[in-house]
Amino acid sequence: MSANLAVLKTEARLFRREPGTLFWVGLFPAVLLGILGMIPSFREADPSLGGRRAVDLYVPVVLLVAMIMAGIQAMPPLLTGYRERGILRRMSTTPVRPGALLGAQITLHGAAALGSAVLALAVGRLAFEVRLPRQLLGYALALVLTLGSALALGCVLCSVARTAKVAQVLGTAVFFPSMFTAGVWAPVQSMPETLQHIVQLLPFGAGSQALSQAAAGDWPDWPHLAVTAVWALVLGWGAKRAFRWE
Predict the structure, then answer these.
(1) 207 or 97: whose pLDDT is higher?
(2) CA–CA distance, 161 with 190 (Å, rounded to integer)
């Protein structure tokens, strides 16, 4: 346990020295919300959105952006780089198992995404008077399940990519579809009905809907929570089966 904690502390120090990761995971979602909130039409109630404002719908979206950045863009190249440079192989000969390093990175990137979510919620509330989630427990559950899906997807990319460069390419290929299903270009609630049904079968589409429902004060629909949970379990199982330390 003490060895694993030492690995976590060391990785945390290295993590703080990555300004790119800190910005894109920790700050960019709040900055994106600030930019969107400055658009006048986004601050006006829209009857087609049930009287809600576009900025209200984009708060859950930017939370998903933080998860996508952490799980898909930041973590895979780092872990694949460790394997490519033989760091994981060398760790296997010490009392500290390579799994400690993997767990540390999942913990750090997950914590960064959650911290980014808190920051985005604060910006939405203070700058644009977006109401805080009314169903806090349901919101937290949806947030954790969707984050689990994002990190599990990142682990899958680590498993199938042989080099850090390949991990970056695969991450970029997955990044844009993930951003679309999260509702970055158009909130899921404003998509055509058929497209909504398709998007809600994917983790970020279902997560967006669950977060929006909890923000409005309703308990998230169980099918949306189930979709995020199933994706997290399936992707996690696939990553575990395919992951190679060397």
Answers:
(1) 207
(2) 35
- Between the CA of residue 34 and those of 42, 53, 185, 202, what are the distances in Å? 11, 14, 16, 27
**Of the candidates 201, 205, 204, 174, the residue with the CA atom closest to the CA atom of residue 188:** 205
* Tokens found for residue 4: 């694993």
- Write out pLDDT tens, residues 165-179: 999 999 999 999 999
Choose among 112, 104, 72, 74: nearest CA to 88: 104
Residues contacting 216, CB < 8 A, separation 6+: 134, 135
- pTM of the predicted model as reported, rounded to 2 decimal places: 0.92
Backbone φ, ψ for residue 44 (5° rounding): -105, 140
152, 235 Cβ separation under 8 angstroms: yes
Q: What is the residue extent of each domain of the chain?
A: 2-242
The set of residues, in sequence order, having a beta carbon less than 8 Å from that of 1 and lying 6+ positions away, is none
Would you call 53 helix, strand, or coil by DSSP? strand
The per-residue pLDDT for range 112-138, each reduced to its tens digit, is: 999 999 999 999 999 999 999 999 999
Helices (H) and strands (E) in the chain, counts: 12, 0
The two three-digit tokens of residue 101, written as one number: 């390093």
Which of 110, 31, 100, 18 shows the shortest CA–CA distance to 71? 110
CB atoms within 10 A of CB 38: 12
Radius of gyration over every alpha carbon of the chain, rounded to an integer in angstroms = 18
